[in-house]
Amino acid sequence: MIIVMKHNATQGEVAQVIAQVETLGLQARPIIGEERTVVAVVGDERPVEPEQFELFAGVERVMRVLHPFKLASRDFHPEDLVVKINGVSVGSSQVIVMAGPCSVESREQLMETAAAVKEAGGHILRGGAFKPRTSPYVFQGLGLKGLELLREARDAYQLPIITEVLSPQDVYLVAQYTDIIQVGARNMQNFALLQTVGETNKPVLLKRGMMSTVEELLMAAEYVLSHGNSRVMLCERGIRTFETSTRNTFDINAIPVLKSLTHLPVIADPSHGTGKWELVTPIARAAVAAGADGVIVEVHCDPAHALSDGAQSLKPEKFAAMVSEVRCIAEAMKRTV
Amino acid sequence: MIIVMKHNATQGEVAQVIAQVETLGLQARPIIGEERTVVAVVGDERPVEPEQFELFAGVERVMRVLHPFKLASRDFHPEDLVVKINGVSVGSSQVIVMAGPCSVESREQLMETAAAVKEAGGHILRGGAFKPRTSPYVFQGLGLKGLELLREARDAYQLPIITEVLSPQDVYLVAQYTDIIQVGARNMQNFALLQTVGETNKPVLLKRGMMSTVEELLMAAEYVLSHGNSRVMLCERGIRTFETSTRNTFDINAIPVLKSLTHLPVIADPSHGTGKWELVTPIARAAVAAGADGVIVEVHCDPAHALSDGAQSLKPEKFAAMVSEVRCIAEAMKRTV
Amino acid sequence: MIIVMKHNATQGEVAQVIAQVETLGLQARPIIGEERTVVAVVGDERPVEPEQFELFAGVERVMRVLHPFKLASRDFHPEDLVVKINGVSVGSSQVIVMAGPCSVESREQLMETAAAVKEAGGHILRGGAFKPRTSPYVFQGLGLKGLELLREARDAYQLPIITEVLSPQDVYLVAQYTDIIQVGARNMQNFALLQTVGETNKPVLLKRGMMSTVEELLMAAEYVLSHGNSRVMLCERGIRTFETSTRNTFDINAIPVLKSLTHLPVIADPSHGTGKWELVTPIARAAVAAGADGVIVEVHCDPAHALSDGAQSLKPEKFAAMVSEVRCIAEAMKRTV
Amino acid sequence: MIIVMKHNATQGEVAQVIAQVETLGLQARPIIGEERTVVAVVGDERPVEPEQFELFAGVERVMRVLHPFKLASRDFHPEDLVVKINGVSVGSSQVIVMAGPCSVESREQLMETAAAVKEAGGHILRGGAFKPRTSPYVFQGLGLKGLELLREARDAYQLPIITEVLSPQDVYLVAQYTDIIQVGARNMQNFALLQTVGETNKPVLLKRGMMSTVEELLMAAEYVLSHGNSRVMLCERGIRTFETSTRNTFDINAIPVLKSLTHLPVIADPSHGTGKWELVTPIARAAVAAGADGVIVEVHCDPAHALSDGAQSLKPEKFAAMVSEVRCIAEAMKRTV
User: Fold this and answer.
1) B15-B17-B19-B21 Cα dihedral, nearest 10 degrees
2) Chain B within 8 Å of A46 (Cβ-Cβ)?
3) Which residues in chain B touch residue D63, judged by CB atoms under 8 angstroms apart?
4) Is D267 helix (H, G, I), strand (E, B) or coil?
5) What is the pLDDT of residues A143-173, one digit of tens each?
6) Are C213 and B245 in contact (CB under 8 A)?
């Protein structure tokens, strides 16, 4: 932590800052420059809120030196984490394809889609039973019935499943049915939910909030990890920017940034990252070329009549073409699909 | 809803769109332009997801015409809502001041701050018992003990209280202690929480998410309203932008925009909206000049040692000066404090 | 400047960084922490690009300590700058109102608007002769003819004038006609233009780019100041964010932030800052309550037929009401209009 | 264009809007819905500013239907444009690599870098002679001397060159030396510059502004095209967002979006798009996988001592590796390098 004093800060003000640093059990190293004094702080700054120093007279601003996360940091876990789920290894040299409908709508819809996912070479079946919806007037998901259908499809097609949980009360219920628990973008900083998920032993796919920095994503992972669950996978799914030609802006930079900062696997969601089905395949290719460990995409047999997210869902034949194109890129990266 | 067809869309493609509009129980009015055909849709489009039409062959994009919210709309409630809380009227000609510490830390800290809030002319006492914190390694709030202390301060100083709830399970517990339930910015789209809060009969202060649009804030309010709780107050607390000289960018435009779109009262939070105590008073003045019905600010007797959000907390004497300056602006607006 | 080394940086890598710091004529103070070493750099870092150190092996990132601007800094100019223009003092206790049409369209239009500005108590007449337009297919301004009309209105109504210049070649021409040169938001980082404007002796109103930070605005001012022109006024006119309910997001925080960082006067442009005429008056009030030294607004006698920016222009009677409301707020701030 | 009336708009207000539409030579088609009336406008809306209708009583908002660009639209030019420059074809099945130093610093530096670019298989040499710099205190480029050195390197290594122009006065000078004129991100809306560049017969690389939408980029291209220069190439170079772990956020979505909206070639700049040399290669790969027609990257033989942009420059050996990796991806896309 570096505390930058104001241009006209007095010696007494510097002394007060130093005293507080020492009260916190840290060491202070003042450096007197030509225009300003800075106080460098030595020690583990993580349990401290740097902003508290901005209250001291004579302080201009405070800058962190250490990353605030530790369990999620590659500094302390140089080897890639591989998460194994019923024979599928996420984070290995294989690029993983997770696919399925946005919402589970009916047995017929789910089974038909699962068959298409399996046939095209997908590895994991996704589907929403509890849906976070911006409007209270639209379809909210089938709930428990959706979980049961997912389980049925899982067993019928031998595909591990992933589904989202919205509320701490539902975590243990969802964990009984699913192979991977998904924490959605809108819940990335729902700390009560992160804590409960952290207390289970299920692998977790943690989606980046559309308003969250890479560092905040890693801090959300730190919540799960610090509650005892080490099998966390991260997902880039687009951030909100000023651009309106796509629903979100897929942050491709985040993929290599995350791979360098953390040992956790990184999955790309080009469906939400673009919001338009025509863009899903090119962005899936790009994500793999940037180093993603897998993709998660929405597939629907009749997207024009989907109860949610139709605009970004691929039809089965387009999905099969996507898998094939992603495979070409993976091979150019010396990986498999 | 307006469906814009592609430049080269065929008559058959237009016909398919029209058929789907009619299947949904709406009417279609095609308009053939020189470069493009558009299909105008007549009827209540709210239960429909416009994006589903983007899947149809020949469709370029879809634009909404109606606001997606209805219960929150001034179109249907032209009169301002006044929320009465133990003699305090939010949304009236009086500008309301809510103040107190970010977190409840101890009886002494809370009582001392409550006394200062009361003496300076504050109307409502704020304080956090359950805290949403970005890092799992910092103070997470006193929980139930914090609620009990808030209740004690409420009774001692005759100040209604407001406190945040993080999780659906805690809603009924919190509702037993507090006068106003706060839903924080990070939970603005925690739909499970909005629904539970909507089932209580307590007034709600709903904070805008840091990367949520005004329309999404009104849709979050719609969740609470549609579950039966009509006493919702909205809070602008700064949005996330590219600017780094302040923690957030206080969206002053949102105040008159909200006042024109909805009948719900609008409160400003200049503490979070700036992240720096020096900016709290000027932005509080600005918010009232823009038409806010009240302000909510953080006050701490020893902010440099606060366990959270010290950098944006006012000391009691600065808070008293703020109330006095806000009063001058309120009077220039022909309102009182 | 603070250079943060990587977790596993070697002593040799630290030594190379120190050697380069010393080559640049600066001093290096290494501080060895538990997890990381940082190198604090003492001396004037302004002619150095901190990013160059990110290339050295073992360096994680570099943080600036000093503000990159100096001539624009209040650290070196504690007193407010007052810019005097034909009897109008910008930056004094008087809040200045600049008003007029977006574009000069005809003698009749300009004279009628100038009369309305004068009568309502405006101090300075604005009007565009050279217009930056997003589309090549719309009205681009009257050019020289517009400058002549502005001069005529200036003399007829005894109002100093302000007009924009788009290109270095036009600076001396425009300077012959105008009292204040405006550099528009899209040209805030047109360094050729800033340099030429800096070589004139005319006061300059420098508008913040819609994509620019407060620090970049001050660096743009530094360009003008460092070329010899000290009479620079800054203008907040809204930034681009994800919010779509207004054309721009007026950054109210920037007003007190700028007032603390610089001695230059700060003007608010609520017309561009909102893009909607209904919001101009509330945001003008808010800007003055936040400490702005003046406002610049668009006024048009027939905005529905304006050749540009009609949507954000006030009619004369609404402008007169705005001046009156801004005066009430100014008086609450112990200033005049 | 669709004009949405307010909920309570009167018949007279609708009539006034219709009258104004007809005055502009367009046709109005009112559609009376249950909650609102909308007026659909038929005809070429491009010379009209939709916002002017927001001034009419009873109007809520106005939505465009047509894209505001025409010469840049694929609707009117379905075939890809191929720009031929001394034997290099941009927009063909070959993926083009443009590379070189950010700034030309000396003959030695440029020749050494040009040799490395040629040897690694680069097609076009880039280098800045006129530099747009945020600070007036840092290196501003060699100017004319830089142009002469570029010409020398061009002839010595048989590499076409590209260099930036900052000011309309310099356009003809720069055009005498360069093969491609670059318009930089900060000048994307410098309309005086766009116009002058549009009057030359040199190919133009137009970089997207860091806070410009895809539509604004296409409108800037429209300026150049409408002044007679049809050989425009577009460049995605990262946009400004809230994320701070990279200098900019490379908008990968923009690549397929641009390829669908326009026939102009699309180049990716991963150096500016990330700001960090470690990220240049993964993002270059991703851009090609997303469909880019080429990349432009910064190469420097001694980046730690570069006079500008060192942090994002590749050393020659890293550049050679990048070309090789990009070639693998291009081949997976059935293209060549």
Assistant:
1) -150
2) yes
3) 2, 63
4) strand
5) 999 999 999 999 999 999 999 999 999 999 9
6) yes
D303 near C CB under 8 A: yes
Question: Please, which residues 271-300 of chain A have a Cβ atom closer than 8 Å to chain B?
Answer: 275-277
B119: distance to nearest CA of chain D, Å?
Answer: 40
Contact D276, D247 (CB under 8 A): yes
Predicted confidence (pLDDT) per residue in C31-84, tens digit: 998 888 999 999 888 878 787 788 888 998 898 888 889 999 998 899 999 999
* pLDDT tens-place string over residues A102-138: 999 999 999 999 999 999 999 999 999 998 887 888 7
- Which positions ≥6 away from C306 have C-beta within 8 Å? C101, C102, C103, C105, C300, C313, D52, D55
Q: Angle of helix D277-290 relative to helix D316-332, nearest 10 degrees?
A: 20
The residue assigned the tokens 């954000």 is C312
Alpha-carbon distance of B110 to C132, in angstroms, equals 56
For B217-254, the three-class secondary structure string (H helix, E strand, C coil) is: HHHHHHHHHHCCCCCEEEEECCECCCCCCCCCECECCH
B223 and A CB contact within 8 Å: yes
Best CA proximity match to D289, nearest among A281, B209, C321, C324: A281
How far is B242 from chain C, CA to nearest CA, in Å? 7
Choose the CATH number for B83-332 among 3.40.50.720, 3.40.50.620, 3.20.20.70, 3.30.470.20.
3.20.20.70
Q: Assess C211–D contact: CB distance below 8 Å, yes or no.
A: yes
SS3 category, D144: helix
Do the beta carbons of residue B326 and residue B97 sit within 8 Å? Answer: yes
Nearest chain A alpha carbon to D212: A243
* Predicted local confidence at residue C316, as pLDDT: 94
What is the distance between the alpha carbons of residues C183 and C178, in angstroms, rounded to a whole number?
Answer: 13
Q: Among residues of chain D, what percentage have pLDDT more than 70?
A: 100
CB atoms within 10 A of CB D271: 29
Least Cα separation, residue B73 to chain A (angstroms): 14
Interface mutation target, options A32, A35, A77, chain C, most CBs of C under 10 Å: A35
Number of alpha helices (DSSP H) and beta strands (DSSP E) in chain D: 10, 14
> Which residues of chain C lie closer than 8 angstroms to B282, CB-CB?
255-256, 289-291
CA-nearest residue of chain C to A29?
C31
Same CATH topology for B2-63 and B83-332? no
Task: Answer yes or no: do A276 and B187 touch at CB < 8 A.
Answer: no
Mind listing the pLDDT tens digit for each residue in D207-220?
999 999 999 999 99
CB within 8 A of A148, min separation 6: which ones?
A: A177
In the CATH scheme, what architecture does the domain D2-63 have?
2-Layer Sandwich (3.30)
B266 CB near a chain C CB, below 8 Å?
no
- Position A223: which residue type? Y
ipTM confidence = 0.94
Query: Which chains does A contact via 3+ CB–CB distances below 8 A?
Result: B, C, D
CB atoms within 10 A of CB C323: 20
The β-bridge relationship of strands C124-126 and C96-100 is: parallel
Contact state of B245 with C274 under an 8 Å Cβ cutoff: no
Q: Give the start-to-end residue ranges of the domains of chain D.
A: 2-63, 83-332
Measured between alpha carbons, how far is B314 from B321 in angstroms, rounded to an integer? Answer: 10
pTM of the predicted structure, to 2 decimals: 0.93
Q: What are phi and psi of A76, to 5 degrees?
A: -105, -5
pLDDT in tens, C289-301: 999 999 999 998 8
Residue to mutate among D3, D8, D31, with most B CBs inside 10 A, is D31
The residue to which tokens 């259908």 are assigned: A149
Kindly state whether A18 is in contact with chain B, defined as any CB-CB distance less than 8 angstroms.
Answer: no
Q: Hey, are the CB atoms on A7 and C75 less than 8 Å from each other?
A: yes
Q: Among C311, C336, C315, which Cα is nearest to C326's?
A: C336
